[in-house]
Amino acid sequence: MIRYVNATDSLTSLQLTGFFEGWPTPPSPERHLILLRKSDEIVLAVESASEKVVGFITAITDGVLCAYIPLLEVLPPFRRQGIGKELVRRMLRSLEGLYMVDLLCDPQLREFYASLGMNPATGMMIRNYRVQSGSKEQRARGKQQGNATRKTAHSGLQE
């Protein structure tokens, strides 16, 4: 049986293994726990028997007009059971009073999100794969490299 929760109070990193499938440098379960705790809104799908998190969705929001859903994932053995749809439904319900709720997805997922009332749109993004795992060390190196790149890119500009 799956239950859905909106809090991380009793959650441990041991309950968060197996996520970020296909990522070359995924966040560790410890970083994943931090990510969940720092998100403005979360919904977790928890398998009651094992207490393992089998799916999650996060949102960041200003709480006034806008929200963005950056992450939704269900572990492979639990896919195609309606868990992902339920996670999205619950998240959209919690963001209902906002003007806009956005997310980016791969083209093959558009139909999934459309079935939940979302509309296709064009978006833009930056992906900084150097810091994909979210580790503090990677973020510090990424900031240093990013600053050097920006300085180099702007050094030839006339003011």
| Overall pLDDT | 89
Helix content: 25-40%
**Kindly, what is the distance between the CA atoms of the first and last residues, rounded to a whole number of angstroms?**
63 Å
> How does the overall form come out from the CA principal axes?
globular
Question: How many individual helices?
Answer: 4
The low-confidence parts are 148-159
What kind of sheet is the major sheet? 5 strands, mixed
Order of helices and strands: EHEEEHEHH
Tell me the fraction of residues in β-strands, as a range.
15-25%
Structural class: alpha+beta
Number of domains: 2
CATH architecture verdict of the largest domain: 3-Layer(aba) Sandwich
Can you count the beta strands?
5
Strand order in the sheet with the most strands: 1-2-3-4-5
Determine and state the CATH class of the largest domain. Alpha Beta
CATH superfamily of the largest domain: Gcn5-related N-acetyltransferase (GNAT)
The CATH topology of the largest domain: Aminopeptidase
SSE arrangement:
Layout: E1 2-5, H1 29-38, E2 41-47, E3 53-61, E4 66-74, H2 83-94, E5 100-102, H3 110-114, H4 136-154
Parallel strand pairs: 4-5
Antiparallel strand pairs: 1-2, 2-3, 3-4
Notable traits:
159 residues; alpha+beta; Aminopeptidase; 5-stranded mixed β-sheet; 4 helices; 5 strands; 20% strand; disordered C terminus
Question: What do these coordinates show?
Answer:
With 159 residues, this protein is of the alpha+beta class. The chain has two domains: 123 residues, Gcn5-related N-acetyltransferase (GNAT) (Aminopeptidase, 3-Layer(aba) Sandwich); 34 residues. It contains four helices and five strands, in the order βαβββαβαα. Strands 1-2-3-4-5 form a five-stranded mixed β-sheet, with helices on one face.
